Every structure is written in structure tokens, then in C-alpha cells.
Amino acid sequence: MQVDTCSREAGDEERMEIPFVEFFAGIGGFSCAVEHLPVNVVAAFDQDAAARATYEAHFGTVTAIDLCGLRRADPEVLAADGWWLSPPCQPYTAKGRQLDVADPRARPLLHLINRLPDYRPSYLLLENVPPFATSRSRQLLLDTLQALGMKTQEAFICPTDFGIPNRRNRYFLLASQNAIAPPPPYPRFETSLGDYLEPSRPQQYLPPELAGRLDPASNIVAVDGVPAVFGSSYGRAIHGSGSYFDDGQGIRRFTPQEILRMLHFPATFRLPSALRQRAQYKLAGNSVNVAVVRYLVEWLLGT
Known about the structure:
- The protein is α/β, with parallel strands linked by helices.
- It has 2 domains: about 10-190 and about 285-300, Rossmann fold, CATH 3.40.50; about 195-270, DNA Methylase, subunit A, domain 2 (DNA Methylase, Chain A, domain 2), CATH 3.90.120.
- The chain has helices at about 10-15, 30-35, 50-60, 75-80, 105-120, 135-145, 210, 215-220, 255-260, 275-285, 290-300; strands spanning about 20-25, 40-45, 80-85, 125-130, 150-155, 170-175, 220, 245, 250-255.
């Protein structure tokens, strides 16, 4: 399985054309996805220290500010013609209280929506969990984009649509000042779970009393299986956070690196070794699927 490296190299700036800003940048899934595309990430924002350390190890500086304080004329944002948004999903997820606009974690997104008329980007791409599609936040964003004359498209895409063995259905919103073409055909990877796995280590296996609490029908997959979505609580919560792997020798958790591989970060992409494993699981669980985002950027830009 061939996956392009996502670290920026010398000369990248010369071949990139459209300046984008990454809001809620995380560990850099968007920057990874636009490698070798006509995109130049000119600014990135994230408040999480561990995410910033990972991002900066691969891509360069990421700004740590509360986006609710973003100015009307921030020079970093003014330099961008495209916005990438992957805001917190907790206000919308079925596992949360679904407070939507009343959730404090939705405030940064709502502030950015209010700032859109000040910046008027030509392109916008947003990712979130499926329940976002019925949220008040989405409607406010759509109303603002349409008032600015932008065309929009919405899509639900799961990595399994691409032949990637990981169930991670997500809502996406594309917006452009130009007409958006019909969606191109999905790429096909035709990989199996074994393509993403590392050799098992003894410390990864669950003790029998813990493994016995799992439902084999919904929690455990074999090497030919399709794991369910991995959440940020994987490695901490035993239920509702992701699948477990039965390799014939026992039942174990997937490693953070294996999760990143299923999200199509390349094997060369590493989380800081100084981070505790719980923090690594959180970063991986909050990340996006690089292959899916790349497809969406190509669709949005018509490349």
C-alpha cells in the first residue's frame, strides 16, 4: 500500500497556489491531505498543546489562540483564500448532550461564522459528525455562506466507501464562490485490515476479565474485519470508543499508530514519543481520514 508522505519539503511553497488556513488544525490531517495539491497552508490554529507539538514536528508553526478572540482583520487569516474547519464534535455527537449552539465548545465555530463576512474566503470545507447535519450551527453556517453568494454541497462519506477497512462516517460541507462540480468517482484502495497492523506485543492484550466484558459481535474484529470508528476516549473507555482486534492469540487494543494508518496518515507520520499513550489515543481519535479529505479538496477545487 503506497501512501504519500505528508511532511512539507523544500520547494513546496513554489508549486502551491491557493492559500488555506486550518482552523481546529489538530495534528495536521488537512496539511497531510493537501500534499502535492495546489494548496498552501499559510496559517493553522489549535489550542491543544499536544496537537500543536505534533503539528509543528511535521508542518511548522501553529498558533494557539481562543478563536472566539479572532480579530476582524487578523493578518494570518487575511492571507488565506480558503478555510478548513474541523470543530469540536461534542456539541453534536449522539454520545453527548447535543446542546448545539448552547454548548460552550461550539462558540469558536459560531464566532468564525460571524467573522465570515469580514474575510470572505473563496473556499470553505468543514468536517464533523453526522448529527451536525441537523444542527442549528450548520444552518447558521449555511445561511451565512449563501448570503455571501457562495455555492454549497454537502456529503456523508465513510472510509469504507473507498475500500478502507474502517467505519468512520462523517458529514462534510463544501462551499465555493464558484460553481462546484458533481462529485468525482471515489478512489479505490482495496486494502485489508492487515495492511495497517503492526506486530502484536504482549502488553497490548487485554486481561481475560476485561476482554470478557466485550460483545464479540460489535466490539471485536479479526484480520479480515472492519473496525468501528475510534473515538478520543479509546484506550480509556472499554465500550463505545472503538473496536478491538482478535489476532488468534488474544484480544488487544489497536495502537495509536495503527489508528493513524487506518486514517491514511503515512507510516512516516509519528506522534511525539514523550506523549502518554492516553494522549496519543486522544489525538488519533480526534483526527480526520487523510484520504477522504484529499478527495474532498480535489472535488472542491476541481483538480
